[in-house]
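Reopening: structure tokens for the nicotinamide-adenine-dinucleotide complex, inputs below.
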Amino acid sequence: MNQNSELRVDGDYRGVNSALSERTGLRGVAVVGLGYWGPNWIRNLNQLQRAERLVACDLDRERRERIGNMFPGVELSSSLDDVIEDPDIEGVVVATPVGTHYPIARQLLEAGKSVLVEKPLATSVAQGEDLVRVARRNRAVLMVGHTFEYSAPVLKLAEVIATGEIGEIFYISSTRANLGLFQRDVNVAWDLATHDISIILMLMGRTPEAVSCQGRSHYREGVEDVAMLELHFSGNVIAFIHVSWLDPNKIRRTTIVGSRKMLVYDDTDLHEKVRIYDKGVSVQRYYDTYADFQLSYRYGDVHSPRVEETEPLHVECEHFIDCIEHGQEPRTDGLVGIRVVSVLEAANQSLQNGGTLVPVVRPSID
Ligand SMILES: NC(=O)c1ccc[n+]([C@@H]2O[C@H](COP(=O)([O-])OP(=O)(O)OC[C@H]3O[C@@H](n4cnc5c(N)ncnc54)[C@H](O)[C@@H]3O)[C@@H](O)[C@H]2O)c1
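Re-run output (same inputs, fresh job):
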């Protein structure tokens, strides 16, 4: 933690610079993009107090003023170039529209800044690979904002699966739907399914071999507002992802069906986000004729493990700062980001070809 935080006076971060000799925090961090999501980064970074200066950057004056009113101690900037040229700024969060992630992150990395790019990392695998190369060349941290990989319920799912309690995974089914927050530059798959893909890849510990995707646009031509993806994994595992900006209900639910037990993660449930169902199907081991073949269903207990709730963004924020301070590779590094983009890229191709199965391209770097 910043040793000098008690010296800080709102509105003047530079004023305490003379007393920095004992600090363990960073000189400065910045957030570029103060639209819907960026202010959450500002709030968390401001709370953490692990950098002497916090700069909030947006092209839009109203967005900057809003942040200025909410967080008087935060410096405001209208220019990405000023952030790039500021020698104090060691880490930058990029929370701009998806299509701008690559050019903005690349410039920052070339300037030697460590960068956290909001999800998805980029709009193509080639762009993602380029970002990883530039980050490595400049010895900068590159992290992707896969928020759910830092969320306690998702980590609990991973923990339960790792114990073998649910057995072999048969399939995963995920729905993320609600009414609204249409994005301008990307379709609903690039916006919402990114979360499900990152969760599923983390839980499966591997990338699917092929993907198919169907979708339709109803309000903006060429920008699908509803989509259904199928992720085909080795070992006969399939994952279904249904995403929509056009649904009367807010649904955030993932079901994992295993050979022994079943898991349900409902992010809208305030108290029991994760449930383990001791339910399943048993096949009679020995039978002589087809008529003897029988399935029996097991309806056992439902258990909801305790999940310690912390804001995922807070955990993600701390991890980013830790990685910069200690020169560590983030849990969700550039390669993790590329794998998710490789699935989205295949999904896009499938969407344009009427839902055909498209192989997922393996990244050419590791
Ligand atoms: N991790 C999550 O749970 C989560 C949730 C929502 C959004 N996001 C991601 O956050 C990012 C932003 O989404 P949003 O909904 O806040 O978008 P938004 O359109 O509301 O905001 C984007 C902001 O970026 C600014 N901007 C664009 N180009 C800029 C530039 N060159 N320099 C400075 N500012 C610039 C715009 O003026 C705008 O204020 C997207 O990548 C999105 O996928 C992540």
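DSSP finds nine helices and 15 strands in the chain. The mean pLDDT is 91. Marking as resolved unless the reporter disagrees.
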